[in-house]
Specification:
Layout: H1 13-30, H2 34-41, H3 45-56, E1 70-73, E2 82-85, E3 91-95, H4 103-108
Antiparallel strand pairs: 1-2, 2-3
Helix pairs in contact: 1-3
Length: about 110
């Protein structure tokens, strides 16, 4: 038996960032929802959402725990409806009274 065994150091924030960053980059390039991507890659969805928000630097702007989405007015020179920001950074924009009936079908696909 070897006497030079040392306790394993806990992962640092840099280690965790280095682990999650390639997954987040691959998800963004995939076009999949975060939930579907995590399922296909056996990643814990809650941790994935946390690290994707951390990577973007918006963890403090996430919807409150237990909320599904946050609806905010579109800002700019010519507002064209509403934008819905979903967990994981997905945004659905350009919602108006002309197309709001499509929203439930769109959300069912996420």
């Amino acid at each position: 038996m070897s006497d030079d065994l040392s306790p394993t150091e806990p992962p640092t924030a840099d280690d965790r960032t280095a682990y999650w960053q390639p997954h987040i980059d691959a998800w963004r390039a995939s076009g999949l929802s975060a939930k579907r991507f995590c399922g296909q890659h056996s990643l814990p969805y809650g941790q994935f959402l946390y690290w994707s928000r951390e990577q973007r630097g918006v963890a403090s702007h996430a919807p409150a725990s237990g909320t599904f989405a946050r609806v905010v007015p579109v800002t700019g020179a010519r507002p064209s409806g509403l934008t819905i920001s979903l967990p994981g950074g997905v945004q659905i924009g350009g919602i108006s009274e002309d197309n709001v009936a499509l929203l439930p079908r769109l959300l069912a696909q996420l």
